[in-house]
Amino acid sequence: MTATDDTLTLPPVPTPGAARPATLEAEGISAWFGDHKVLDRVSLTMPAQRVTALIGPSGCGKSTFLRILNRMHELVGSAALAGRVLLDGQDIYDRGRRITHARRQIGMVFQKPNPFPAMSIHDNVLAGLKLNGTRASRAERDGLVEECLTKAGLWKEVRDRLRQPGGALSGGQQQRLCIARSLAVRPRVLLMDEPCSALDPTSTRRIEQTIAELSDEVTIVIVTHNMQQAQRVSHQCAFFLAEQGTPGLIVEHGPTDVMFGSPSDQRTADYVNGRF
Ligand code: ADP
Ligand code: MG
């Protein structure tokens, strides 16, 4: 526990029944790395209280698109962007709107679990909170840690070892710790980039369960290469493709059962049936 812990500000507890999850809309997103155009006019609405799965072959721009949704793309020196991203109608790229404004509302979980390995499990959960001088009591902090670990499906496994380092957990537990850390700032949208592809089937199932339970309170966008997973967790899917050196675009999107049962584009049918 460091001195700065006493200046943690906890995010407000949402009013029960209040509509916290936001609708995220990408409008005409094109993206470049230097001269290399990697996304071409991608538009997609990711509705509140829905899970959206982004599917498609490697290299078609899914991770780039996800990073654009919370303003991480602009951190790459050579990166350029066109289009808009609206969070409940507000452009997160509006001039004057700070990058932290988007980050606090739009969390991200990566393929490789990345807890702070030497930091305790307890402190890892709180690591994303802003230090700005308002006191939060120890009880409040502990309450938030328990709440977020519970939501991430990890509480029972770690409640007796909260002071152990995050790095001591298994890979699947570390990923759930990262989910808890993301939830601690009470994001309105959670972006997940292949969150289970480094994990065993049991951990994968636990995270899918967590996604299902969270979808009421946070809008979820998940990139996955696992077609069964897309079908299990998502309400709608978008199929990305970059053909023969052209930039990535969305070939088709729609309700998950339609995308898998009767897609309108042959390329979607081929992809979801494992034909490329
Ligand atoms: P996906 O997640 O669908 O596999 P990515 O978004 O990672 O696709 O990559 C899309 C394209 O952008 C690829 O051609 C990739 O090489 C390129 N790319 C991704 N990140 C960078 C970067 N930081 N610098 C340059 N090119 C990049
Ligand atoms: Mg990727």
UniProtKB/TrEMBL annotation:
Key words, A-Z: ATP-binding, Nucleotide-binding, Translocase, Transport
Entry coiled-coil feature ranges: none
Bias (Low complexity) ranges: 1-10
InterPro entries given in the database record: AAA+_ATPase, ABC_transporter-like_ATP-bd, ABC_transporter-like_CS, P-loop_NTPase, PstB-like
A Pfam family the protein falls into: ABC_tran
Record domain ABC transporter: where: 24-272
Gene Ontology terms: cellular component: membrane
One annotated GO molecular function: ATP hydrolysis activity
GO terms of biological process kind: phosphate ion transmembrane transport
Region Disordered, annotated ranges: 1-20
PROSITE patterns hit by this protein: ABC_TRANSPORTER_1, ABC_TRANSPORTER_2
PANTHER family hit by this protein: ABC TRANSPORTER I FAMILY MEMBER 17
Name of the protein described by the UniProt record: Phosphate ABC transporter ATP-binding protein
